[in-house]
Amino acid sequence: MSITMDTETAVHLIGTDKLLDYELEQYWHCPGCFERNRANGHSCGPSWQQLVQYAVNHAINDYYMLPSDRRTAIAILDSLDKRWTNKVRAFASKEHFDRVKKVVSHYLVIHLLRDSGAQEPFCLFEQHSVRLPELRTDLSMIFQVAEWGSSSLVIKKFIVHNDPNIVRAFLHMTVAFADRAFGKLPERIEVHTLLDGATYTAIPVEEDIPASLDYLLLMRGLMKGGTTAPTFSH
After folding, report:
1. How many other β-carbons are positioned within 10 Å of the β-carbon of residue 168?
2. What is the DSSP letter of 188?
3. Is residue 31 packed enough to be buried (19+ CB in 10 Å), middle (13-18) or exposed (0-12)?
4. What is the pLDDT confidence band of residue 3, given thresholds at 50, 70 and 90?
5. Residues 109-153 pLDDT 10s
């Protein structure tokens, strides 16, 4: 899979045979929290990244629901401000809280306004599942933004922190999911990160499918209590 960048959980199989995208993200974000939840059902409180992601998700959804002539920077900022957390203690300091809000707001506006004239996505924060017979499991994903034109499929994701492992996981999940659910690979997969304004762009090809399935098989084993996960570079 060809990935370029300019200068943006795992498998919970206790009583289920599903790989859930948000659990894979939780695993990479905080392996300790994931393991405690897997072992005894104890859940850590939301991190500041999760609180920010919540506000970002709502702002993105609100943005794409607007007609194109009302998709403005002011609309984005108003929506983000309405959902922004007031839990300052979740951040390192008040200065950190203010800085994160300023930076995330800035880059979210930049990324979204690039699509100001786009039609409403055919898939907007929808959860879907597909069976992966090779893994004898279901893969469940929440698609933030998926645009399907007359002949092309483009899938986009916006995340707060630029974590190459989370980016890699999303790319592999998307390749495996799209192949089975849509019968075709996306023309393009984009991941936008909001603390540094980076964009990862992947152009998947058929030869990527086995590698993506192998990755998911590896992660399924790790999430069942296997060895320490490797670190993947981008």
Report:
1. 21
2. E
3. middle
4. very low
5. 999 998 776 777 889 999 999 999 988 899 999 999 998 876 789
Strands 137-148 and 153-159: antiparallel
Token couple for 8: 């943006």
User: In terms of C-beta distances under 8 Å and separation of at least 24 residues, what long-range contacts does 224-232 make, across chains too?
Assistant: 224/11, 224/13, 225/38, 229/27, 229/28, 229/31, 231/165, 232/164, 232/165, 232/168
The whole model's pTM is what? 0.84
How far is it, in rounded angstroms, from Cα 219 to Cα 227? 10
Angstrom distance (rounded) from CA 111 to CA 59: 12
| 169, pLDDT greater than 80 | yes
Q: Is 200 helix (H, G, I), strand (E, B) or coil?
A: strand
Distances 145 to 100, 119, 192 between C-alpha atoms, Å: 23, 11, 12
Report the distance separating Cα 138 and Cα 142, nearest Å.
13
- Write the burial class of residue 73 (CB in 10 Å: 0-12 exposed, 13-18 middle, 19+ buried): middle
Q: Comparing C-alpha atoms, which of 232, 234, 215 is closest to residue 223? A: 215
Question: Hey, what amino acid is at 231?
Answer: T
**How do 18-20 and 137-148 pair as beta strands?**
parallel
> Is the separation of the CB atoms in 190 and 6 below 8 Å?
no
- Give the pairing of strands 18-20 and 153-159: unpaired
3-state SS class at 226? coil
